[in-house]
Amino acid sequence: MMVSRLKNREQGTGNREQNVHLRVRCVATGAAMMVLLLIAGCRQDMQNQPKIRSQRGSELFADHRGARPQVANTVARGQLREDSYFYTGVIQAADGYREEKNEMPFPVTLDVLKRGQERFNIYCSPCHSRVGNGLGEIVQRGYKPAANYHDQVRLSQPISHYFYVMTHGYGAMPDYSAQLTPVDRWAVAAYIRALQLSQAAKVEDVPSGVPVRSLKEIAQEKHLPEGFAEPWTLPATAVQALPNDMKQGNPALAPTGPADLKITIPQSKPATAAAK
Ligand code: HEC
Q1: 176 touches ligand 1 (CB under 6 Å)
Q2: pLDDT band at 2 (very low <50, low <70, confident <90, very high)
Q3: 13-49 pLDDT, tens per residue?
Q4: Which of 144, 230, 231, 275 has the greatest number of C-beta atoms within 10 Å?
Q5: Ligand 1 within 6 A of 251 CB?
């Protein structure tokens, strides 16, 4: 408005009537803005409400603490975890200590196993490999060999142990409680059992009438590289951040399982020595 007025003056083209009109409009706008500013200044916003800021004191409570302790014998909504075995994977034994159980807290259906397989392949196979021999891609590049699910120690562990390991981590293995909900952790544990069965399966285990084909045959048919279905060891190029020392109780190097397991346990020597 001001600009157009100036322009009018400079150019000497504006007439009186127009200028008066403009002046009236300017005064009206200015007044409206003043009113708006006044209203805004008086507003009580939500940010001004009487609330407790974290870690600050409060005059409301007798102990003057703003942060309130939990009320005894109450449970927050959505945090009632009555089935503690489902959430922890352990029960309290008679002697008061925690105990793992070889029991699923809910029935295992094909859907559960499929979900477990999917989650396992995402979160566990990078280290444990898709067959669970502990020689996944990350291990091939130098991470501490992950547990081989097919060795005697892992085969004899109760199923809830796997849940417990996923919840709390184990040695060099980080925990997966943030990535996997309890129900998913159980599904993965069930799938590990399926892997253990599948890797030690014999022809007799297959129901009669179901055709059995060798992995070699399937690999050839699908034009996969030779040795695709064979067991593998750590490549000589794998960098071992930690020495593979049996005395340290490295699970991937634990004694071999049943003789018929088609899994190769890595040598207990560092890769540099093995490369010779
Ligand atoms: C980053 C690599 C890595 C990933 C990913 C990983 N693990 Fe592990 N896992 C390990 C290593 C390494 C060990 C051996 C721990 C040690 O000896 O320090 C191990 C050990 C284990 C053990 C054996 C524990 C025992 O009592 O001997 C189980 C069971 C296991 N992992 C399950 C899982 C499951 C299930 C997942 C997926 C949710 C998973 N791991 C993902 C690296 C990994």
Answers
A1: yes
A2: very low
A3: 445 666 666 676 767 777 787 776 666 655 667 767 7
A4: 144
A5: yes
> Tokens for 19?
């200028």
What is the overall mean pLDDT for the chain?
80
Q: Which amino acid is located at 171 in the chain? A: G
> Averaging pLDDT over each range in 35-44, 118-127, 229-238, which range is the top one?
118-127
Cα-flanking dihedrals φ and ψ of residue 198, to 5°? -65, -35
- 96 Rama class: left (phi>0) / alpha (psi -120 to 50) / beta: left
User: pTM of this prediction?
Assistant: 0.69
In angstroms, the CA 13 to CA 102 distance is 97
Q: What is the DSSP string of 68-85?
A: PPPPTT---TT-----HH
Q: Is the CB of 238 under 6 A from ligand 1?
A: no
In contact, 233 and 264? CB cutoff 8 Å: yes
